[in-house]
Design brief:
Pfam families: Mannitol_dh, Mannitol_dh_C. Keywords: Oxidoreductase. InterPro entries: 6-PGluconate_DH-like_C_sf, 6PGD_dom2, Mannitol_DH, Mannitol_DH/Oxidoreductase, Mannitol_DH_C, Mannitol_DH_N, NAD(P)-bd_dom_sf. This is Mannitol dehydrogenase family protein. With about 500 residues, the chain is an alpha/beta fold. About 45% of the residues lie in helices and about 10% in strands. The strands form four sheets. A five-stranded parallel sheet has the order 5-2-1-6-7, with helices on both faces. It has a three-stranded mixed sheet with strand order 4-3-9, with helices on both faces. The protein starts with about 25 loop residues before the first strand and ends in a 6-residue tail after the last strand.
C-alpha cells in the first residue's frame, strides 16, 4: 500500500497509525534538517503526545537549507509528510506510521520561504538537527568561526542568507520589527551544551550586521540545552525491503533501536508542548546527562568504528561481536572514560556502559561502521579529545585513548588491511589522508593538525603513546595493537611479542 493520508485506513492491521485528525493540526515548530534521526526521535515524541489528543497546535513544518535537502522534501511531500518507523527490537520488529509533520518548505537560494515561515508568530520553536559539525565552531578556539565563507556571506547579505542561522536572524529581525516576539531555538544535535552553542552562533552572526538585533535576540530568545539519544541507521535498500515486508510502500522509512532518551532544560520563551507526558525529562542539569551520553556512547562509537573500518567489519553489532574490538571498548570505557563521567539520577557510569554495550550489540540494528566513522574530524574533536584533555589534566591514563587516535589516523590512510579502499568519509578527507600518510613515517604529523588537536600536539605523553601505537598498527596490524592494549600480548621494541601478559 502506497503510504499517504488517503491510505492510512487501508494499512495492515499490525501497523500502528495516527488516530488524531491531521487536518486539524496547526504548526508551532519548524524543524531544520529533517533526517532519519529527527523523525525517529523528536517527531516520534510529538506524535505520542498527539495520540493523547494533546499538542495539536504544535505540528512540525520541515525545512532544509542545502540543495540535497530537496530530495527528502520530494519524498515526504509525496506521502503527505508521513513516515513509517520500524523498531528493531531484538525480540521482533514492529512498525508504526507517524504524522506530526504537515509540510516541508521549498528550498531556495536566499531561503525566502524559510524566513517567511520563521517570521510567522505561530512558530514558537525552531529546532535543528544539522550535525555536530554544522554550527560554525572554530575547531581550535571552540569559538564562533566568523571567518567562514558562509558566515561572511550571511553577514553581508542578511536578507538572503545561506545558513539556517542566517534565516533565523532574518526572521527574528522581522518579528522584532512587527512586535511579534521571539521564538525558542532548540538544538537537537550531539554537542556539549548545544543550546549555548546555538545561542552563540545566532547572536554572533546577528552582531556582524545588526548589533542592536543581536542584543534583542540574546535578551529575549531562549536556547535550552538538550540531550538526545536513539541509534538510527541510514536508510538503504535493506530498509526499503523491510518496510515493504510490512505491506507499505514508503520511500523514506526509518529504522531505529528500541531505546530513546531526551533530556531538555525547561527554558522556552514562547511555550512548549507538554512533552514530559510522553517520557521527555526536563532537567536543570542537562550537562551531566550530555557528558555521560557524549563520552560513553558517542565517544564509544569512535572507539570501535575506526578499528572496524580498518578490519573491514561491516556493522557496529559485528564490531561488538569481534572479541578484540569489544575488549577495546570495554577497557577504554571502564579505565579511561568512566572516571571522567559523573552519575546522573538513576544511572551510574558503569551501568550506562553496560546499557550502551547491549545497544551496540543489537544485531537487529544494521548500523554500518562507515556511518558511525563518518566525519571523524568533528566526532573525535567533539567526543574523544575532551576526555583526553581531562585525563591529561588529572594525570590519568590515556593509553587506550591514544590508541583510538592512532586507529583514526590509520583509517584515514584510506585503505583497509584487506587492501580495499575506504571511500572519502569526512569533509576534510583530503587533508586527513595527507596527514595520515605523512604520519606513517613521522607520527607527530598527525597530531600537528592543530585545527583538530590544538595544543594537544605539544603534549609529550600523548605524542609518545600515539607514536608507539601507530607504529605497532603499521608494523604488525590492527589486531596485534588491540591484543597488546587489552592484555593478550606484550609489546617488545615497538612490535607485538608472542608472550601473554596479564
Amino acid at each position: 500500500m502506497r503510504l499517504s493520508q488517503a491510505t492510512l485506513g487501508q494499512l495492515p492491521a499490525s501497523v500502528a497509525r495516527p488516530h488524531y485528525d491531521r487536518g486539524a493540526l496547526r504548526p508551532g515548530i519548524v524543524h531544520i534538517g529533517v533526517g532519519n534521526f529527527h523523525r525517529a526521535h523528536q517527531a516520534w515524541y510529538l506524535h505520542r503526545l498527539m495520540q493523547q489528543g494533546e499538542a495539536l497546535d504544535w505540528a512540525i513544518i520541515g525545512a532544509g537549507v542545502r540543495p540535497y535537502d530537496a530530495q527528502m522534501r520530494e519524498k515526504l511531500l509525496a506521502q503527505d509528510c508521513l513516515t513509517t518507523l520500524i523498531e528493531l527490537d531484538p525480540s521482533g520488529k514492529s512498525a508504526e506510521v507517524i504524522g506530526p509533520m504537515i509540510d516541508y518548505l521549498p528550498i531556495e537560494d536566499g531561503n525566502g520561504p524559510l524566513i517567511d515561515q520563521l517570521a510567522d508568530p505561530g512558530i514558537r520553536i525552531v529546532a535543528l538537527t544539522v550535525t555536530e559539525g554544522g554550527y560554525y565552531v572554530d575547531p581550535v578556539s571552540q569559538g564562533f568561526d566568523a571567518g567562514h565563507p558562509d558566515i561572511r556571506h550571511d553577514a553581508a547579505n542578511p536578507d538572503r542568507p545561506r545558513t539556517a542561522f542566517g534565516a533565523m536572524v532574518a526572521a527574528l529581525a522581522r518579528r522584532r520589527a512587527a512586535g511579534d516576539g521571539p521564538f525558542t531555538g532548540l538544538s537537537c544535535d550531539n554537542l556539549q551544551e548545544n543550546g549555548r552553542v546555538l545561542r552563540r552562533t545566532v547572536v554572533s552572526l546577528a552582531r556582524l550586521s545588526d548589533p542592536d538585533l543581536a542584543d534583542w535576540i540574546d535578551t529575549h530568545c531562549t536556547f535550552p540545552n538538550s540531550m538526545v539519544d536513539c541509534i538510527v541507521p541510514a536508510t538503504g535498500t535493506q530498509e526499503i525491503a523491510l518496510v515493504q515486508a510490512f505491506g507499505i510502500e514508503d520511500d523514506a522509512p526509518v529504522t531505529h533501536e528500541d531505546f530513546r532518551q531526551w533530556v531538555v532544560e525547561d527554558d522556552f520563551c514562547a511555550g512548549r508542548p507538554d512533552l514530559h507526558r510522553v517520557g521527555v525529562t526536563f532537567s536543570d542539569d542537562v550537562h551531566a546527562y550530555e557528558t555521560m551520553k557524549l563520552r560513553i556512547l558517542n565517544a564509544g562509537h569512535q572507539v570501535i568504528a575506526n578499528a572496524g573500518e580498518i578490519l573491514a567489519i561491516g556493522t557496529i553489532a559485528e564490531c561488538m561481536a569481534h572479541p578484540l574490538v569489544s575488549s577495546l571498548f570495554h577497557k577504554v570505557q571502564r579505565e579511561e572514560i568512566a572516571p571522567h563521567v559523573a552519575a546522573v539520577p538513576n544511572m551510574t557510569p558503569a551501568a550506562y556502559i553496560d546499557l550502551v554495550e547491549r545497544r551496540f550489540s543489537n544485531t537487529a540494528v544494521v548500523d554500518t561502521t562507515r556511518r558511525v566513522a563518518f566525519d571523524g574530524s568533528s566526532r573525535h574533536t567533539g567526543f574523544v579529545l575532551p576526555i583526553v584533555r581531562d585525563a591529561l589534566a588529572a594525570g590519568a591514563p590515556i593509553e587506550g585513548l591514544a590508541l583510538v587516535e592512532a586507529l583514526w589516523a590509520r583509517m584515514c590512510d584510506g585503505t583497509r588491511e584487506d587492501g580495499s579502499a575506504i571511500a572519502p568519509n569526512d569533509p576534510f578527507w583530503d587533508e586527513l589522508v595527507g596527514a595520515a600518510r605523512a604520519a606513517r613515517d613521522r607520527p607527530a604529523a598527525w597530531l600537528e593538525q592543530r585545527q583538530f588537536y590544538g595544543d594537544l600536539a605539544g603534549n609529550e605523553g600523548l605524542r609518545e603513546s600515539f607514536a608507539r601505537w601507530l607504529g605497532l598498527i603499521w608494523s604488525d596490524g590492527c589486531e596485534a595493537a588491540l591484543e597488546c592494549y587489552v592484555g593478550h600480548a606484550s609489546v617488545t621494541s615497538g612490535r607485538a611479542g608472542t608472550g601473554v601478559s596479564g
